[in-house]
Amino acid sequence: MQRDHMQERGSPSGRPGCEAPVASPAVRGSNTRHRWVALLRVGLPALVVVGVALSAVSSAGAASSAGAASGASSKSARVSSAKSGSASGAGYGSGFGTLASPRRANHKGAASPITTLALPKSYIAPGRQLFEENCSACHGPGALGTSRAPNLVGLGAATVDFWVGTGRMPLADASLQAVPKPPRFTKKQVLEIAAFVTSLSRVNGPGIPVVDLKGADLAKGNSLFVLNCAACHTITGSGDALANGYVATSLHPATATQVAEAIRTGPGNMPRFGPGEYSNKEVADIVAYVTGPIQHPDNAGGIGLGGVGPVAEGFVALLVGVGGLMLVAFWLGDRS
Fold first, then answer.
1. Cα separation values, 98 from 13, 94, 225, Å
2. Which of 48, 127, 229, 269 could serve as a FRET partner for 240 with CA atoms 20 to 30 Å apart?
3. Residues 103-136: pLDDT tens digits?
4. How many whole angstroms separate alpha carbon 336 and alpha carbon 275?
5. Across-strand partners of 211?
6. Which region among 40-49, 135-144, 236-245 has the lowest average model confidence (pLDDT)?
C-alpha cells in the first residue's frame, strides 16, 4: 500500500518515489541573483559596444548627409530648386506676381537670382490705417518708435514683411521674444503696411526679395549654412535654445522669401548678412538648401524621427536596441 501511495505521488517522470524537489526561498533568491549577474555580464558589454557603434554611425551619417548635399549634381539641384522655388518666384501667391520689379543685372552682367518686389503707391493709404490701428500704440503714429518699440523708419519693406508676415508682430507683450505664429493680417495687408512704412523715408533698407532658385547651387548652400547658420539653428534646421532665454526658431516652416529676408535683415539676435557678406547668388544658394534638403530631407538611413539630429536618434537606438538585448539576455538566463 505504501508503494502504491508513492506511485500515485510519483514525479513527473513517472518513476515511483521520486517527488519533484521544491526549492526553498533562499535557493530561489540565489537563482535570481545569478540571473541578474548573468544579465549584467551580457548587457553591460553589449551596451558599450552598441554605444560605440551608434556614435560611429551617427558621425558617419552626419558626414554622409553633408557629403551627399555637397556632392549633389546640378540636375538634382535644379530639380530641388524647382520644387521649392516655384512659389518663391511669385513670393505671395497668385495676384502678386505683377508686383515684382524687372530683373536687375549684377556687376558681371548676369541676371541676379533675387529681385525686389515693387509695392504700388495705392497700398500706402490702407497701410497707414492698418498701422495706426495695430502698430502705432508701440511704434508711434509716425513709426519713429517709443520706449516700448524701436523706430521703423528706413528699415525697409523686407523687415516689416518678415516680422508681420511671420506673425511675430504685433506682439502683445514687448518684454517677450517674438516667435512665429499665424499672422493676423492677409498677405495683401502685410504688403500695405510695408508700403506705408517705406513711404516714410526716401532711403530704406532691403526690399522684399523674390528669389529665383532655378540655378541655385545646393553644395554651396550647404557649405554656407553649416559655417554660418547651423551653430544656432542646428544642422537639421530644427532650432535650438540660445543664451538669456532666447531661442533660434525652426527653419522648417519658413518660405524662400522669409529665409532671404532673415539673411538680409537679421531679425532678433540673428546677425545681418548684407551684400558685402553674401552676394545675391549666395543667398539664393542658402535659400535653396533650406527649402530643399533641410525642409525635405532624404532619410535614406530609415525613420527621420522628426529631424532632431543624431544625438536623439542615437538615444532612441540605445533605448530600443540595448533594452531589447537586455530583455533577450534575461530571457535566456531565465531559461537556463
1. 93, 9, 31
2. 48
3. 443 444 568 999 999 999 999 999 999 999 999 9
4. 72
5. 114
6. 40-49
Q: Which one, of 320, 319, 304, lies nearest residue 61 by Cα?
A: 304
Q: SS3 of 235, please?
A: coil
Interaxial angle between packed helices 157-165 and 187-198, expressed in degrees from 0 to 180 and rounded to the nearest 10: 150
Residue type, 143: A
Which phi-psi region, left, alpha or beta, contains residue 95 (left: φ > 0; alpha: ψ -120 to 50)? left
Under 8 Å between Cβ of 117 and 157: yes
H helix and E strand count, the chain:
13, 4
User: What pLDDT band is residue 270 in, cutting at 50, 70 and 90?
Assistant: very high
324 membership: H or E segment, kind and range: helix 323-335
Kindly state the cell numbers that stand for 219.
553644395
Give the whole-angstrom CA distance, residue 336 versus residue 330: 10
User: pLDDT value at position 96?
Assistant: 43
Cis, bond preceding 170 (omega within 30 deg of 0) = yes
Q: Distances in Å between the alpha carbon of 118 and those of 3, 10, 49, 198, 310?
A: 109, 99, 60, 11, 43
> How far lies 286's CA from each of 92, 159, 226, 250, 292, in Å?
20, 19, 10, 15, 10
pLDDT 10s digits, 47-61: 666 655 655 554 444
In sequence order, the 6+-apart residues with CB closer than 8 A to the CB of 89 are 97, 100, 210, 211, 212
Phi–psi pair at 110, nearest 5 degrees: -80, 155
Q: Three cell numbers at 25?
A: 526561498
DSSP 123-184: GHHHHHHHHHHHTHHHH-TTS---SSS---TTS-HHHHHHHHHTT--S-S-TTSPP-----S
Contact 206, 158 (CB under 8 A): yes
- What does the block give as the cell for 268? 532678433
What is the model's pTM? 0.66
CA distances from 94 to 50, 87, 102, 205 (A): 53, 9, 18, 26
- Give the containing element (helix H, strand E) for 209: strand 209-211
Angle, helices 25-70/323-335, rounded to nearest 10 degrees: 150
